[in-house]
Amino acid sequence: MTDTLLPNGIKDSGGAGSFFRKGCNPFAATGRSKLQNKRASLNQQIIKQMRMRAGAENLLKATSNNKVKEMVLLELSYVNSNLQLLMGQLEGLNSSVEVYQNTQETASIPLIALGLKETKDIDFSSLFKDIILEHYSEDGNSFEDEIADLMDLRQACRTPSRNEAGVELIAKYSSHLPLMESRFFSPTRQTGIFFTWYDSFTGVPVCQQNLSLEKASILFNMAALYSQIGTRSDRQTIVGLEEAISSFQKAAGILNHLKETFTHTPSYDMSPAMLSMLIRMMLAQAQECLFEKTALPGIRNQFYSLMKMAQEAAKVSEIYDQVHQSMIQTPIKDNVPFFWSTMSQVKTNHYRSMAHYFVASALLDHQLGLRDDEDQQEKTLSQVYDRLPEGRSPLDILRRKDERERIGKAHIRRAILGHEEALRIYSLCHHLNKLEVLQDILRASLQRSLNKCTENEDEEEFADYTEAPDIISKTEHKAEMEVPPTTKVKVTDFFQRLGPLSVFSAKQRWTAPRTIQLHPEDRDLSFTLKGESPVQVVSLDPLCPAAADGLKEGDYIVAVDDTDCKWMGVSDVMRLLKDVNEEGIDIQVVSIMDNNPPMPTKSATFCGNLPKTYSMICLAYDDEDKSPKSRKVTKKSSFLNFGLKNRLKSASTLSLPTADHSGALPWNKPCPTFPSSSSYNNDSALY
């Protein structure tokens, strides 16, 4: 998929003239586009089934007819079965990692990429035109091109190319969002624009009228795009590995920024617990690429090199084990694809076995010679082990050939067991079985360990059950989170013709433009100007004709005759006023009105057709920590009471997947992992 250059009215400082980059062709017959189209289709089917279930549950509560109840219960069982099937298909899409891999790569373990969140199209046209007319007293139709450019940019962000140009495209839209918020989203009124995004793991739609969800989802997609760039990098070259490392570290940095900035995002895939797991996974994949970068030139068959690689492999194994432990915690385990947790477990065993193989090779293939530095080898070996078997010291193992072989064979046996366990876990996941390259790598590693064991096998030797000690993980290059500079890029406000944001914003209120006719006497305007743009009238003579005509102290001059001067400074405006003839000159001014608005309206969030507020999310999440006094305060708000009332009536459309099998559902079936009415009261239903 390639970028398409389409004309529009934006000036691009990057030298593209009057063109700017658009997204990929959504109808391109590529694996990634097909996958994203399937995701969009599944999201629509999930919405349909959720609406059917909500209607059936409401009918079940409202009717007292036993025959109707039986029919409704039967319908509910079908709907929940369909939801389970759709969830399985969505998990399959999240498990399709082969689509994101480098097509020319056949010798590297596949990596996991995040799929882009899907959203609905939004038509800003009519609502923005109304706001421009009502709030800014401008002709909304004159801003049709600017509104179209904004809508095109948002649409392009749904299908970004998998490179830095795609990241820059998303970053541009992300930088436009604060400007759009300042222009059109007042804290005291709702615009009527609903931003809908679908959870990337559950497919549950979340809808809000403010821009918080939009900003958070765009950041999530930027991190997802970096993860896709990392997986498609050619890991058989140093340049490709460096690109992959940087991409995964940037993905982790953006996810961490998202976690710290948007702490109460209602979408489950952006909850703090899920983001923490995704950050660990990105850093684990970056660490894996760092290990591959170290091993790519070749591992020297020397004692120190083998011990170093053993500790590097142990580090990768340790990080993947942490990822796996976070994936199997409630409530994450109910929504993370089984493929992901299985892959992390396979890599944990695989790299741990590699560490034991390297230590075994160092001990079995390299005996302590006269020219070897005994003290240095002892120091190296002591740093590899956390503890040694009783009665043994690093120096004993190095000096005594039998001890060296005994510990080396113990390591090779543990390596074989680890590789066999990795293959066993691999066989448990049918999605993982599709990755033949992974199976080939696991089998080759096992065979290498078996060959090493055969080479050092002694038929006359009694069976030795010495257990190999654990290997201390250590790395010279630790993967760190990195926030890319492209997170915020400098952009030109689409609606800059409305005037400087310091004055002409949605939170400010001012009068309609008034026309004042100036008749200077002896070139005296009877007032002075100050400020940047727009300029402000000060030191006004209250007895001058302009004051009598309606000019006030503190007014902003927005036009002189037919010249718009919202962006002009004092010198530019004075230049327009200095050549006034006897007929005078007309100026247009506005007056800032007092801003004492009532308490701002809370923004409702719609999750599966049920409205809720951020306050409700916080209360549900921290219910045990809240004092009775704090809960009494929230009951005073009629809007919150309305939300709580709806929660009791039809909470099944709000709650997110959980593993609760309480059997409290009226149709006496196991509680599905998809949203259900019994899961709302659990903290896991939200985070």
UniProtKB/TrEMBL annotation:
Under the heading InterPro entries, the entry gives: BRO1_dom, BRO1_sf, HR1_rho-bd, HR1_rpt_sf, PDZ, PDZ_sf, RHPN1_2
GO biological process: one example? negative regulation of stress fiber assembly
The organism's superkingdom is given as: Eukaryota
**Where's the BRO1 domain?**
110-459
Give residue ranges for domain PDZ.
Answer: 515-583
Tell me which residues make up the REM-1 domain.
Answer: 25-99
Q: Cite the Pfam families for this sequence.
A: BRO1, HR1, PDZ
Q: Which UniProt keywords apply?
A: Coiled coil
- Any signal peptide, and if so, which residues? none
Similarity-based family = Belongs to the RHPN family.
Question: What name does UniProt use for this protein?
Answer: Rhophilin-2
Q: Which organism is it from?
A: Cottoperca gobio
Give the classification, highest ranks: Eukaryota, Metazoa, Chordata, Craniata, Vertebrata
